[in-house]
Design a protein that fits this description.
alpha/beta, Rossmann fold, Dihydrodipicolinate Reductase, domain 2, 2 domains, seven-stranded parallel beta sheet, 12 strands, 35% helix, 23% strand
Length: 267
């Protein structure tokens, strides 16, 4: 891998990736992308990220940056990410996608484009979170239907999608372990006289407050006991480091759709 192109370079996650890549040295950031009306266009990506000038201006044009040896790291919007994936697939440029909020149609197209270039898609780039997701499915299989499942996620006030992509990934892992369909049994919040909890439902409850980076709590509640798994992100650096590690790994993979579970070698 010769360099990284960061999409969403002026955002909270994108600027973190720029800063961490600069601190780590080679391979460095060779391109920085923002939306066409961004007030950060033309500015140096390093300075916007709070480090020294790195000689990489923020631009809205991805095309000139799609050169052999680069890997794109996406922390933008679902629409922008899909547009960049289309261009990257034509040039066989690997893409790491940390963007959340994509709908099923967008996800289906990303999967299709992955037939031409390696793509790693993950709702959360944290190594700890992905280890936890792997564990949750196994726990659910062992506990079975006698334990109620509740997932509580908390993020900063600026997060636009709910529930979080991480909470959904956790829910899907648990649902798979219990041989359920999360789209059918998932409950997003409760209000009013909802009656007794059904045995099959999996709740995903969202909190939005202040500057919370990301907390996820999974409760397996049985009669007489409960088992809780908690992951707390102390800063965005763990997501950024995971994205950089994913980019280095993906650069050596064949075309296909991958996840952090693949990178970590988890079954």
């Amino acid at each position: 891998m010769e360099g990284i192109v960061v999409s969403g370079a002026a955002g909270r996650m994108g600027s973190t990736v720029v800063r961490l890549a600069h601190q780590a040295g080679a391979p460095g950031v060779v391109g920085a992308i923002e939306y066409s009306a961004s007030p950060q266009l033309g500015k140096d990506a390093g300075e916007v990220a709070g480090v020294s000038r790195i000689g990489v201006p923020i631009t809205a044009d991805m095309a000139p940056l799609l050169t052999e040896g680069v890997v794109i790291i996406e922390f933008s919007t679902p629409e922008a990410t899909l547009e960049h994936v289309r261009s990257a697939a034509e040039k066989k440029i690997p893409v790491v996608i940390g963007t959340t909020g994509a709908d099923q149609k967008q996800l289906d197209e990303i999967k299709e484009r992955a037939q031409r270039t390696p793509i790693l898609l993950s709702a959360n780039m944290s190594l700890g979170v992905n280890l936890l997701i792997n564990i949750l499915g196994k726990v659910a299989r062992k506990l079975g239907d006698d334990y109620d499942v509740e997932i509580i996620e908390a993020h900063h006030r600026f997060k636009k999608d709910a529930p979080s992509g991480t909470a959904i990934a956790m829910g899907r892992a648990i649902a798979e372990g219990l041989q359920r369909d999360l789209d059918k049994v998932g409950i997003n919040g409760r209000k009013g006289i909802v009656g007794e909890r059904t045995q099959k439902e999996i709740a995903l409850l969202s909190v939005r407050a202040g500057d919370i980076v990301g907390d996820h709590t999974v409760v397996f509640g049985g009669i007489g006991e409960r088992l809780e798994f908690i992951h707390r992100a102390h800063s965005r650096e763990n997501f950024g480091r995971g994205a950089l590690r994913a980019a280095q790994w993906l650069a050596h993979q064949k075309p296909g759709l991958y996840g952090m579970q693949d990178m970590l070698g988890l079954d």
